[in-house]
Amino acid sequence: MTPNSIFYIIVDRGKANTLLHRALECGAKGGTILLGEGTVPPGLLVRLLGLNEVHKELLMVGVPAGVDQKLISMLKQEFNLHKRNKGIAFSMPFVRYEPEAPIGCMPEIHEAPYTCIMTVLDRGQGHPCMDLARKAGAQGGTILHGHGAGVPQNFYFPLMIEPQKDLLLIVTPTNRAEAIKQAIYEGMELGRPGSGILFAMPVMETVGLYEGRQTGGGEAK
Amino acid sequence: MSLLKQKFAEVLQSLLPVMVLVLILAVALGQVEAGLILRFILGGGLLLIGLAIFLWGVDLAMNPIGDHLAREVATSKTAARFAVLSFLLGFLVTVAEPDLLILGRQVDSASGGAIQAQILVYVVSAGVGLLIALGSYRLLHGGSYRLMMALSYCVNFALAFKVSEAFFAISFDASGATTGALTTPFVLALSAGLARVKGGRDAEADSFGLVGAMSAGPILAVLLMSILTGQKEAHGVAEAFQTQNGVLGPLLHALPENAKESFLALLPLSALFFIFNLRSFKLKKRELFGILRGLAYTLLGLALFLTGVNSGFMDMGRILGRDLAHRYAAFLPFVGFLLGMIVVLVEPAVLVLGRQVEEATGGRVPVKLIKGALSLGVGLAVALAMVRIMVPEVKLWHFLLPGFALAIALSFKADPLFVGIAYDAGGVASGPMTATFVLAFARGAAEMTPTADVMVDGFGVIAMVAMTPVLAIMALGALIRHQEAAVPVKKAEAPQPQALPSGAVAAYDCVLLVLRRGLAQRAVELAREKGAGGATILHGRGSGGHDLHLFHIELQKEKEVIFWICDSRVSHLIAAHLYSELDLGGEGGGSVFMLPAQAMGLSGQSARDLQEETERALSGGEA
Asked: Global pTM?
């Protein structure tokens, strides 16, 4: 079982279908598309008028070892991902569970160049959290809407209330990750039970992530 | 692209064909004054700006309001509270609908004062409230949606045989009038909110159908009123159209009027929301500000849109209808078909429905497919309405009865998601564009056709537009169900039982499970058995199994993506358990991934919880 990589590709709504088809042709092993929203750096006017709503799609594709470079060059050539505002892509090592495969050969990554910070928060907290992260040096982030597992409640209808969640995804150079994590942890009071969790995963390859683009506002427009 | 820009692009795309076709017709007929053409173009501009802002406001305000109120309704502790609250919601959104009052006045004068306008408004609103309560009960309690809809339409048609044709047409028109530009997006949001609270396997299909349910209410109310008051005949003439003159004058004159109407229509609903906000939601300032801002956009957008449509499009529609009927009557059904097809795509509620289809199915069901069916349906409706104007022997119920009968029959063969969307489509398609532009076109045509009755034929158009999209989308749903049945399902072989993992690596893993929609709750329970903590569930779509193609448009599989953060000592245990219990080896069944995650982010209580869970699972596994 070789370390494969899972590619996360974030593009404007509507582009992910074509992308998935091309990725499958390149040798990717299936993909899943999620709807998300981008974050825009806060300008006073932008925020006041509510212009900070950007719709994105996130495509997750599993890519076997060896195919990743082919996929990256395809993304650059056909979708111009290395240019600004066309979207970003990044990859993480993963192991797909197969019953026949041996156990316990998780790839060991100590010094990944980038880190993906995922924060799971209550619905509506994604944007405030992004503001905090931005102050600590994050360039941009993408918010996905999800929900927690249902909890049975004592209502007239036998309902399981599913707590609605925001999942904020930030990719950053590893040397800045610690500061961002600390800022989110303190700012969002994650030490308090039930307020949310934060975890970080190693990122091996990135496309379209711009460095030092303070004015451009990260990967989201 | 920002959301607002996206809305502009979306509206422009639907509006351009309408503008081009109407301008070509106007020039070809050569009888339309230059002033009117100019006003039409200005109206189109207002429509573009207004509709884009309106849709943006709906996203920012209506959806969260629907969500919060749905939660409030669903979490009622007693049956009485649920009944009162859901009835009130339906009643309040309808009672302020300006179109309904206009209809009430028409019925008032047509019945010679026997049915007063205000009474009709209350009765119809009560009908909507009743059906919203029933529909919400069905949604939350579970039960067959198709059966409920089949029954309500059967009752409606049984009653319809007792009333005159004029009242029959009015009753269906009342249904069209209640599903206005504000009501429909709100009820759509309410339905989606209720489905989200309930969750589970049917969440996707449950997101639709409440608009369809509520459309049956007014029909029932008007029919009952006609029978109970003994009012059989509606005489009188439809209000004569006043063609306005000038270019800017009518637009400027209509704007404050439309703004006032929109404000009044929005008021009861917003008031209810703010009362509940004080009592129970207590939203944070930022969110509340966002909703208020969204409401302001909704109001501004709606006022601009209605102004553009009422003063720019209505006169144009009527004159086109008159000229065509006068000079090229044979072309009426054909032109009607084209107009209907493209005009429906500028209907605000259609755009809102499209967005909701995208959200609720995670983008799985292409909006193109739904819009295509809607378009065909409405085109057919307008064409048939033209035939009815030209051939007086053809009655309204000749179309409505078989149409609905076929739709109901098909609903038992169709994919449940499409059944909900189909019944909604009737209310969604008969919005302000139909009530102004298409209706004006039909009345114009009827005025110049000596055999036509302006009142009966005019009313009938909306009823037709409320029926054919239901049929069209139901047929689409049946087609999809038929195609799906042809796709073979491969069963997985039973996997080998797993040995317990050994070794203790003090690190966390992120376990990522991608699987078919509807199994998330089960997966979370399974993972918990093996020591996983809380999970986060996302809705998505993706490849896997056989993809379904229809007219070269791809229908993807609905997926759920579930994240867990757990100790890497148990991640394989969890993965193995999920794999075997959920039968993931089958084609398109799903996959489990494990990604290394850094533990330092996990902290405080969560980390301790996770440790306890893990230790419990490990000791349980060994024992």
From this structure: 0.79
